[in-house]
Automatic annotation (TrEMBL):
It comes from Micromonospora endolithica. Nucleoside triphosphate pyrophosphatase. May have a dual role in cell division arrest and in preventing the incorporation of modified nucleotides into cellular nucleic acids. Belongs to the Maf family. NCBIfam families: maf. This is Nucleoside triphosphate pyrophosphatase. PANTHER family: BIFUNCTIONAL DTTP/UTP PYROPHOSPHATASE/METHYLTRANSFERASE PROTEIN-RELATED (PTHR43213), BIFUNCTIONAL DTTP_UTP PYROPHOSPHATASE_METHYLTRANSFERASE PROTEIN-RELATED (PTHR43213:SF5). It holds the Pfam family Maf. GO terms for cellular component: cytoplasm.
Length: 230
């Protein structure tokens, strides 16, 4: 392990998909919802918007936590938006909005951007060395994936929107739920579309002198034992 202290990862998101992605990778996060009002943030570029929202979520949770002497706490904030046809699309306003979006998106493609902000709340010398940033050391970046939508018909759109799933997600679609059949293919990391890119998380951890294997729990999916490496 890169640090002698045990690690705790706090996910600043209510998204079940993000939590499941971490759990499937052998990481059991604590969840603390940020409560950030996303409507207050405006940006011209999708990449800037999702990163600023991810930063705000991580900071909001980080400021509610205290560094511990016997534990190293990390906070990960994420946010996703779809760049489509020159617009930035977050969650639909309502069912009618979701229907209109799918009528435009079908048979076409967009780029799903997911911002990631990782904050290290380490106590002691590491934190003291970063006095200008009281929320802790951080690493942040955006992952982007091109999504090609199927040419779905009106009945499929109506049925999908009626499930309520597209109302709760950026871009009004998923690939790991009922919306999966309506996405023909993607170009990039599937985790980006789910809302949390594990390869990017690995790189952000490396910027904080950590390895993703440091976050593995003793038991992973399938009940196989995982021992810390290094």
């Amino acid at each position: 392990m890169s640090d002698s202290l045990p690690l705790r990862l706090v996910l600043a998101s209510a998204s079940p998909a993000r939590r499941k992605s971490l759990q499937a990778a052998g990481i059991e996060p604590d969840v603390l919802v940020s409560g950030v009002d996303e409507s207050l943030v405006v940006a011209d570029r999708a990449e800037d918007l999702c990163l600023e929202l991810a930063r705000m979520k991580a900071e909001a949770v980080a400021t509610r936590l205290r560094p511990a002497d016997d534990q190293r706490t990390l906070v990960i904030g994420c946010d996703s938006v779809l760049a489509f046809d020159g617009e930035i699309l977050g969650k639909p306003a309502d069912a009618a909005d979701a229907v209109r979006r799918w009528e435009r998106m079908r048979g076409r493609s967009g780029v799903l951007h997911s911002g990631h902000c990782l904050i290290d709340l380490a106590a002691g010398p590491r934190a003291e060395a970063d006095q200008q940033n009281p929320a802790g050391r951080r690493a942040e970046a955006v992952a982007s994936t091109t999504v090609h939508f199927a040419d779905v018909d009106d009945d499929e759109i109506a049925a999908y929107v009626a499930t309520g799933e597209p109302l709760a997600v950026a871009g009004a679609f998923t690939i790991d739920g009922l919306g999966g059949p309506f996405v023909e293919r993607i170009e990039g990391d599937p985790g980006t579309v789910v809302g949390l890119s594990l390869p990017l998380l690995r790189r952000l951890l490396a910027e904080l002198d950590l390895r993703i294997t440091d976050l593995w729990t003793k038991v992973a999916p399938g009940n196989q034992s995982i021992e810390p490496l290094g």
